[in-house]
Amino acid sequence: MYRFLLSRQWVLLTLLTLLLIPAMVRLGFWQLHRHEHRVAQNELISRTVNAAPVPVTELTSPGHQVPRSDLYRQVTAKGTFDTAHEVVVRRRTNSDEKVGFHVLTPLVLRDGRALLVNRGWIPANGPQTAFPKIPAPARGEVTVTGRLMPDESTKASGIKNVKGLPDRQVMLISSRAEARALGREVLGGYVQQTAPEPRGNSPELLPEPDHSSIGPHMAYAIQWWLFASAVPVGWVILVRRERRDRAAAATAEPAAEQQPAPT
User: Fold this and answer.
1) Structural domain boundaries of the chain?
2) Tens-of-pLDDT digits for all 263 residues of the chain?
3) Counting beta carbons within 10 angstroms of the beta carbon of residue 147, is it exposed (0 to 12), middle (13 to 18) or buried (19 or more)?
4) Which of the listed residues 35, 44, 105, 199 has the most CB atoms within 10 Å of its CB?
């Protein structure tokens, strides 16, 4: 009755079914884990951006790697901007997806150490090889408030650290690299400036990270699990249809043989 299941075609179809089910289940759990990671990330960001600002020297120091628990933590720093050693970070976009630069300016603290401050985004209005015109920050001693961020890397950001760039242009923000260029100690990580607001809104301050949306990962997980449950159902339907078609064909053959030959 079901001997056709031993045919090459049905053996291959059955093996494919057995492979698809665990693969789809696993893809569903992968999406579930992405959902859980996004929810945890949102909770972390919400907690850190709403926390009261603390002095940046309480959370980082030269050579320090900013941990995930301090990501986007509100910090303050008092010092003087060193625009002579200001650099721009290439190929960065604003909230409208326009490509430009991030302005990275060292803030020299009272103790002589420096903190890298991402003052915001400016458009790329000239040739990529030329250093762009950057609005000057406030002169003299200033108190900066911002979100603490870890040093960037190719592995974490996906941005390739291109060599041989024009003078004062970088691809990634690295406190260690800037410490070598400045010849002074630089606190680990950097700060995304949130205050004071620049004159004329330039550079354009970076927006607060999204921590409300959870993305479609849970819906994708349920979708994969529904696919996994549909595969064996589909296999059973195909088997029953094949069995019915073969039974009908077997019944029709004797009937055709019993019909009288035409005269």
Assistant:
1) 51-201
2) 688 888 999 999 999 999 999 999 999 999 999 999 999 989 988 988 889 999 999 999 999 999 999 999 999 999 999 999 999 999 999 989 999 999 999 999 999 999 999 999 999 888 888 899 999 999 999 999 999 999 999 998 999 988 889 999 999 999 999 999 999 999 999 999 999 999 888 999 999 988 788 899 999 999 999 999 999 999 999 999 999 988 888 887 665 566 665 65
3) buried
4) 105
Which residue intervals of 113-216 are DSSP H helices? 154-157, 175-182
Token pair of 226 as six digits = 């529904």
63: Cβ contacts below 8 Å, ≥ 6 apart: 176, 188
Cα angle 140-142-145, degrees, rounded to a multiple of 5: 160
Cis amide leading into 196 (omega within 30): yes
Is residue 100 a contact partner of residue 89, using CB atoms and an 8 Å limit? no
Structure tokens at 210: 């999204």
41 φ, ψ (degrees, to nearest 5): -65, -45
Q: Where on the phi/psi map is residue 172: left (φ > 0), alpha (ψ -120 to 50), or beta?
A: beta
